[in-house]
User: Which sequence fits this backbone?
C-alpha cells in the first residue's frame, strides 16, 4: 500500500452524501494524519439529470487510480429505476473486476433483533456472494460488450471461472476466522447445472483447505436456519440471486439495513474495491440530518480492513459497538452529523 491511501468518495443521492460524510469523518479521525487523501466525485442522479452522464470514461480512468471507493446510495424518483444502478454501480463492479460481494451479518451487543431472545454470539457470519456473474450477467451484459446479451459458450466458461474465484475467496475468509467453517448455499435439485457447478467447485477447492469444514445447504433450508439456528453459519458462499435474499433477511435479523455494510471486492487489487452501506437513498428524509450513518461507517471499517489497516478497522468497529450499546439507554435523538461526531471521538479515545 502506498504511503498515502487515496479514497474516491461518491456521495450519491438522497441521504447518501450525508452518511458518507460521516464515514469520511470517522476515517480521517482513525487513520494517521496525512495518511489518507479523499477526492469527491459528482456522480448520481443530479449529474445525470443535468448532463445525461452517468459514469464518463474520463472519470472512470480517474477512479482507477484510487486505492478504494466509498459509495453512498444512488437512486432518485426523477430517474427511471435501473439506469443509475446499471450505469454506475454495476459498471464499477465490471470495470474493476469486483467479483466478490462481501456482507457481514453481525448482531451487536445491545441491538434488538426481531428474533426474540437471540444472543449476540449466535449471529456473526460473513456472506461471500458473487458480484459480477449470475443474474448480473443479463443486467450488465451490454455494459461489458456493447451488444444485446446472449448466453454463449464463452460466458459459460467465464461463469465457471468466476465461481472458482469466488469459492477460493470464501475459503480464504473461512480459514482466517476462528470457527473455520464454510457453507455453500444453492439449489442443486432444481437448478441442477448451476448448482452442480458450485458444488463440484466447493469439493475441489476444499482439498486445499484441510482446516476448513465445508458443507452444502439448500437455499430454502438456509433461510429457515437463519431464523431458527443462525449460529450454525460462519462463512456462506453463494451466487448473486440467492445471496441477495440471504443478506436481506440477515440484515433484518441483525437489527435492520441501517446497520448493514457491504463491499464489492477485487481480491487481486488490479482495480479499486467499492465500499457502501446497503440501505437506499431515502429521498423522503434527504437533507434533514435524520439518517443513521452507522452502516456507512461500518463500510469504512471494511475499507480499512481490505487495505491492511486492521487495527484501524478494529477501532472503528469497537467505536460503533460502544455507540450502539449506549443507544439502548435514555439517549436523546441525534442528528446524522452528531452520530458521526460521537463515533469519531470514540476512535480517537
Assistant:
Amino acid at each position: 500500500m502506498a504511503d498515502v491511501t487515496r479514497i474516491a468518495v461518491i456521495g450519491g443521492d438522497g441521504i447518501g452524501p450525508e452518511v458518507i460524510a460521516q464515514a469520511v469523518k470517522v476515517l480521517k479521525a482513525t487513520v494517521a494524519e496525512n495518511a489518507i487523501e479523499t477526492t469527491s466525485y459528482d456522480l448520481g442522479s443530479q449529474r445525470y439529470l443535468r448532463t445525461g452522464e452517468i459514469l464518463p470514461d474520463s472519470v472512470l480512468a480517474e477512479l482507477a487510480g484510487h486505492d478504494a471507493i466509498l459509495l453512498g446510495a444512488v437512486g432518485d424518483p426523477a430517474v427511471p429505476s435501473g439506469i443509475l444502478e446499471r450505469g454506475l454501480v454495476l459498471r464499477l463492479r465490471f470495470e474493476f473486476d469486483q467479483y466478490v460481494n462481501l456482507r457481514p451479518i453481525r448482531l451487536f451487543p445491545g441491538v434488538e433483533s426481531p428474533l426474540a431472545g437471540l444472543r449476540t454470539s449466535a449471529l456473526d457470519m460473513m456472506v461471500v456472494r458473487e458480484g459480477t456473474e449470475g443474474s448480473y450477467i443479463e443486467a450488465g451484459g451490454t455494459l461489458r460488450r456493447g451488444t444485446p446479451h446472449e448466453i454463449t459458450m464463452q460466458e459459460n466458461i467465464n461463469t465457471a471461472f468466476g465461481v472458482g474465484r469466488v469459492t477460493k475467496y470464501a475459503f480464504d475468509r473461512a480459514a482466517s476466522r476462528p470457527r473455520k467453517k464454510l457453507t455453500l448455499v444453492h439449489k442443486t435439485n432444481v437448478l441442477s447445472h448451476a448448482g452442480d457447478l458450485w458444488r463440484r467447485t466447493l469439493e475441489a477447492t476444499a482439498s486445499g483447505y484441510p482446516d476448513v469444514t465445508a458443507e452444502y445447504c439448500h437455499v430454502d433450508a438456509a433461510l429457515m436456519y437463519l431464523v431458527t439456528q443462525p449460529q450454525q453459519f460462519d462463512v456462506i458462499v453463494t451466487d448473486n440471486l440467492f445471496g441477495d435474499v440471504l443478506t436481506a433477511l440477515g440484515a433484518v435479523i441483525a437489527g435492520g439495513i441501517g446497520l448493514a455494510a457491504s463491499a464489492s471486492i477485487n481480491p487481486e487489487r488490479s482495480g479499486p474495491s467499492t465500499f457502501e452501506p446497503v440501505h437506499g437513498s431515502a429521498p423522503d428524509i434527504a437533507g434533514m440530518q435524520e439518517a443513521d450513518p452507522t452502516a456507512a461507517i461500518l463500510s469504512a471499517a471494511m475499507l480499512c480492513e481490505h487495505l491492511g489497516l486492521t487495527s484501524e478497522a478494529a477501532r472503528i468497529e469497537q467505536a460503533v459497538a460502544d455507540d450502539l450499546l449506549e443507544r439502548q439507554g435514555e439517549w436523546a435523538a441525534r442528528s446524522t452529523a452528531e452520530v458521526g461526531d460521537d463515533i469519531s471521538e470514540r476512535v480517537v479515545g
About this structure: The two ends are 26 Å apart (CA to CA). The mean pLDDT is 91. Residues 153-176 form the longest helix (24 residues). DSSP finds twelve helices and ten strands in the chain.
